[in-house]
Amino acid sequence: MTEHTWTVSGMTCEHCVASVTEEITEIDGVTAVAVDLPTGVVTVRSTAPLDEGAVRAAVAEAGYVVAA
């Protein structure tokens, strides 16, 4: 089990959180996603290390951006 944390910019409401969570959950190996809306911090647990590009693509699909 691994855990990764990213900061996502642009989220303003629970719908934003749900969209990001849904897209990241679709990545193979992801077991849990936790989003802290006030800070934009997204914590992802997975069965193996995740490809950062896949996470960035999932966040972009939801309409947001992983902060640099």
UniProtKB/TrEMBL annotation:
Residues 2-67 form the HMA domain. Pfam families: HMA. The keyword Transcription does not apply. Keywords: Metal-binding. This is Heavy-metal-associated domain-containing protein. It comes from Pseudonocardia oceani.
